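Lecture notes, part 5. Sequence design as translation. It can be helpful to think of inverse folding as translation between two languages: the language of shapes and the language of residues. The source text, in structure tokens, appears below.
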């Protein structure tokens, strides 16, 4: 039994993608639009890869946040373990390329509200700040006991 995107038990199956070809239909994953977290990052310049206006961009979005918004909006997408080519840092927080299904075989839009890649990116940038992980950040339990521990003995300096 297939489970729809957005369902808690939905798992993305890795899809073997071939090279881009104009002979493929819009339904083929090779023709889906690509979105990297850097496109939405307000800390990036246009030269570094930001694709939306800075006032609408998000402060350092992660692939997990983009995934939550796409799941909530019931988009069909593929998450690939790819880095944005202009990204200097190769840390796991910067990984993730999303291929989002925008048009069906006939070239009709899958979701009439989203007719361009910019409309999808602006929707993501609008919804990411409203996520619970952004509005109610978790307080680390390891920091609280250290702050209330009172006086900390000074370390003795040894010979240099």
């Amino acid at each position: 039994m297939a489970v729809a995107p957005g369902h808690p038990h939905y798992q993305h199956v890795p899809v073997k993608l071939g090279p881009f070809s104009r002979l493929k239909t819009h339904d083929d994953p090779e023709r889906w639009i690509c979105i990297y977290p850097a496109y939405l990052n307000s800390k990036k310049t246009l030269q570094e890869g930001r694709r939306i206006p800075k006032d609408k961009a998000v402060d350092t979005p992660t692939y997990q946040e983009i995934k939550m918004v796409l799941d909530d909006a019931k988009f069909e997408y593929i998450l690939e373990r790819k880095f944005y080519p202009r990204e200097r840092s190769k840390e796991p927080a910067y990984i993730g390329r999303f291929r989002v299904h925008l048009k069906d075989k006939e070239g009709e839009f899958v979701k009439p509200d989203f007719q361009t890649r910019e409309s999808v990116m602006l929707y993501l940038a609008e919804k990411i700040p409203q996520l619970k992980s952004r509005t109610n950040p978790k307080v680390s339990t390891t920091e609280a006991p250290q702050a209330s521990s009172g006086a900390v003995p000074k370390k003795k300096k040894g010979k240099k």
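The translated text above is only one of many valid answers, since several sequences can fold into similar shapes. Residues 117-127 form the longest helix (11 residues).
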